Amino acid sequence: MIRVLLADDEHLIRGAIASLLSLEPDLTVVAQVGRGDEVAAAVAEHRPDVVVLDIEMPGLDGLSVAESMPGQAVVILTSFGRPGYLRRAMAAGVRGFVPKDAPAEELAAAVRKVHAGGRYLDPELAASAMMAGECPLTDRERDALSLAARGASVSEIAVSLRLTEGTVRNYLSNAIMKLGASNRITAIRAAQEMGWI
Amino acid sequence: MIRVLLADDEHLIRGAIASLLSLEPDLTVVAQVGRGDEVAAAVAEHRPDVVVLDIEMPGLDGLSVAESMPGQAVVILTSFGRPGYLRRAMAAGVRGFVPKDAPAEELAAAVRKVHAGGRYLDPELAASAMMAGECPLTDRERDALSLAARGASVSEIAVSLRLTEGTVRNYLSNAIMKLGASNRITAIRAAQEMGWI
DNA sequence: CTGGGCTTTTGACAAATGTCACCCGGTCGG
DNA sequence: CCGACCGGGTGACATTTGTCAAAAGCCCAG
After folding, report:
1. pLDDT of B132 higher than 70
2. How far apart are CA B44 and CA B196, in angstroms?
3. Nearest CA in chain A to B185
4. Do A24 and A89 reside in the same domain of the chain?
5. Which tens digits make up the pLDDT trace of B115-125?
6. Which backbone phi and psi does B99 adopt, to 5 degrees?
7. Same-domain check for residues A85 and A164
8. Cβ contact, residue pair A101, B12, below 8 Å
9. Residue range A103-111: average pLDDT?
10. Domain HTH luxR-type: where (chains A, B) (predicted)?
11. How far apart are CA A17 and CA B19, in angstroms?
């Protein structure tokens, strides 16, 4: 019997996925949590074989949680298959990655594969991640753009990053150019689409 | 036995919710679809007692689907409880509205209530919708802002709406002011948060 | 019909954003 | 060592965006 811990912020979805996994005779859901920052304690208490993590969660996002527990068998389950997410998950040693629009059997299959020490990647997603490639932005450009995405103005970004306004404008301009965007808003959308910020 | 039709674009979630509803002895899921524009045909074919609709779907969004079938018992199920969504759903004659982060039993309860001719509103959400009130933007302001949200520049918006650039700037400025934002980006975020664009 | 209150429209002006050419300091190959 | 290259940082300048005061049209109550 494979013992599973389930973390997802949407209560109803969490219950629904638990019900789905419970249909499998060899899987049992031993605990459920709704916040990223509660996962560590729950893992310590219940010692699950596999942890299924949503990425979008309050407290701490699923990728950060995965990074904080190397060695733990983890399957990432996420709404949208952003190529950058997959890349980050791989870097954190995650061996299973399933988008929420995958067929229902894929999740159970992924849990079994990961429990057995193997890898499971959604084929669709793996392909698009290959296409997408690396994030073309430098660290500072990404810093500036992600603050802009939260609605900050140039002067606020400058204060946050301890830079002059001119520098910030320059980073944003570079980001806009590299992303093939025409202004800040389209640049933000493009970067979010790819999971880069 | 209450016959339910389920529409949600995320395959895995759809299966999970179906599994959850099937646990209830008096409910049965007679069909599932993954696109808004396939709902009408499926309803005609299967004649379900209640239709459970996600809002975010390709093809046609859940609210538009609900508007197109007055009289049909509908429960709206959505990821995020935007007050504007609830308002639009009520206007379309929807009698059940459940956010995805509600407790798992709420969905089955909502389906039963709606099937019996009653209403079911998530209490949390009803409260925040009361707080939020009507969208303060005029039609043209909303037009301009939603184009801006898709990344259009002032001049592009002006062409789309057949206006001069000055007028468009004025609309965006009014929207920014009414929403208590400090620039276009925060205004877009605020309006999306409330489900107004 | 008359006037008040609303949206829509406008252009002039001020402020923020985007672009450019450039400097500085590592570091990598020859 | 030297130069090419890359990322970080900067200010001056052009363009876009945001604000303001005002005018025209529309609808409704009086």
Report:
1. no
2. 31
3. A151
4. yes
5. 999 999 888 78
6. -80, 150
7. no
8. yes
9. 91
10. 130-195
11. 8
Q: What is the ipTM of this complex?
A: 0.76
Helices (H), ranges, chain B: 11-22, 39-46, 62-68, 83-91, 105-115, 123-132, 139-149, 154-161, 165-178, 184-193
The H helix count followed by the E strand count for chain A is 10, 6
Residues B132-154 as b/e (b if ≥16 CB within 10 A, e otherwise) read beebbbeebbbbbbbbbbebbbb
Tens of pLDDT along B32-74? Answer: 999 999 999 999 999 999 999 999 899 898 988 998 998 899 9
Residues A103 and A178 in one domain: no
CATH code of the domain in which A115 resides = 3.40.50.2300
Asked whether residue A119 falls in the same domain as residue A151, the answer is: no
Tens digit of pLDDT for each residue in A62-73? 988 998 998 899
The answer for B 160-179 residues in CB contact with A (under 8 A) is: none
d(CA A45, CA A39): 10
Query: Looking at the partner chain, which of A100, A148, A181 has a beta carbon nearest the beta carbon of B12?
Result: A100
Mean pLDDT of A118-142: 80
Q: Which residue, A92, A108, A130, sits at the end of a domain?
A: A130
* Cβ–Cβ gap B151/A181 under 8 Å: yes
Tell me, yes or no, whether A189 and A99 share the same domain.
no
Q: Tell me, what amino acid is at B70?
A: P
